[in-house]
Design brief:
Number of strands: 14
Number of helices: 1
Low-confidence stretches: 1-29, 31-38, 57-75
Mean pLDDT: 75
Largest sheet: 8 strands, antiparallel, barrel
Strand order of the largest sheet: 1-4-5-6-7-9-10-14
Strand content: over 45%
Helix content: 10-25%
Oligomer: single chain
């Protein structure tokens, strides 16, 4: 009887040990799966990210004096809203932003002969913004960050006035080059694997240097060099929806 009791006890002990081992294995597997799941939303080290900022609101230009609506075209990716980001590590990212804004207005009175007049106004902006971000741990979907960036921009204008016998081209009236540095803070929210939306706020200082003004009329070009500089310090909120993806 004693031998039978010992045998049963040994079998029960072995079954308990096996069950405990299976339970630990399942727990470790679940924990590993949960960890993998929590890390699957964000890009891994060595990934490259692209993001685009959308600015859906812009002013409509109206010719009040003529009482007519201006016909124009607009391309708007201002202030580095097209951006490439390289993920160095979980907490460090290098970024390079590009800005492009082109606006063209054409106002033609559709008259004939000496009464005909056409005015074309073109405004363009190009900018490049290199920088770096430090990304906090956040959650499995939310990645808050702070960082800094440099900014270099070119703002150009061109106005062409045409009539039956005359054509005048004025370039860079109000045009300027800009140089700046800014601190940034923002967040990315990953609603799917490697796909996110985000928002960002900047606080920076920039300097503007006026461009040379040139006027071309009757086959002759006159250039006026300006020496106007200005320094601005102001918060810059980015009222745009940023959409990005990693690959």
């Amino acid at each position: 009887m004693k031998k039978l009791f010992l045998a049963v006890a040994m079998v029960i002990s072995a079954m308990a040990a096996s069950a405990q081992s299976d339970s630990d294995s399942i727990s470790e597997s679940n924990s590993s799966n949960q960890t993998a799941s929590s890390e699957s939303y964000k890009p891994e080290e060595g990934s490259f990210m692209m993001e685009v900022g959308f600015a859906p609101f812009h002013s409509v230009i109206v010719d009040e004096e003529a009482g007519t609506r201006t016909n124009g075209s607009l391309v708007n990716l201002q202030g580095g809203l097209l951006r490439g980001v390289y993920v160095i590590s979980d907490n460090l990212q290098l970024k390079l932003g590009f800005g492009l804004s082109i606006h063209k207005d054409v106002n033609d009175n559709n008259e004939k002969g000496d009464a005909w007049h056409k005015s074309t106004n073109r405004i363009s902006l190009f900018s490049i913004c290199p920088g770096i971000n430090y990304v906090f741990d956040g959650t499995n979907k939310l990645a808050p960050y702070i960082g800094g960036e440099l900014g270099f921009g070119i703002y150009s204008t061109k106005v062409t006035d045409e009539s039956e016998n005359n054509k005048t081209i004025t370039k860079n009236e109000g045009g300027f080059n800009t140089f700046g540095v800014a601190a940034v803070a923002g967040f990315n929210y990953y609603f799917a694997k490697n796909i996110f939306i985000g928002a960002e706020v900047k606080l920076g200082v920039d300097m503007q240097v006026d461009k040379k003004l040139s006027v071309e009329a009757d086959g002759r070009t006159t250039t006026t060099e300006t020496k106007v500089h200005s320094l601005n310090f102001q918060p810059q909120a980015v009222p745009s929806l940023r959409l990005g993806w990693a690959f």
